Amino acid sequence: MPKRTSLQNMGEAGEACVRQYLEEQGWQILAQQWRCRWGELDLVASRAGELIFVEVKTRSGQGWDQKGLLAVGIQKQQRLIRAAQAFLSQHPDLAELACRFDVALVEQRPGKEGVSYALADYLQGAFELWE
After folding, report:
1. Is 107's pLDDT higher than 80?
2. Buried residues in 96-111 as b, exposed as e (16+ CB within 10 A)
3. What is the pTM (predicted TM-score) of this model?
4. I want to staple 65 with a disulfide (CB 3.0 to 4.6 A). Which of 5, 57, 70, 103 is the partner?
5. Does 1 reside within a domain?
6. Its Gene Ontology molecular function terms?
């Protein structure tokens, strides 16, 4: 089995941070790191007739890409939309729910007792399905 990189570990820690946030908001997590030929859906959750596909970007500093926001450009959005369509084709019982694409930006923060992760921004409806 390949060894985990520090970037993979940081990404998973960021996803765990967002997962906890969503659960505290009453969302039920349906899938995490769901993969298909189009890519990966970091988190899929539902609540009260809504379904969200959440892309999580975790950064250790400000960086050049606005805490990860610029990493979710048009091509990434198209891959996420295709992955969401694949997810829905495998879960037809969810296909009638209102769907939304959110982006969560997580910061890695150094501290006296090691690093911690905090939700820096959560963008509901960060992009829409368009053809």
Report:
1. yes
2. ebebbbbbbbbbbeee
3. 0.87
4. 70
5. no
6. nucleic acid binding
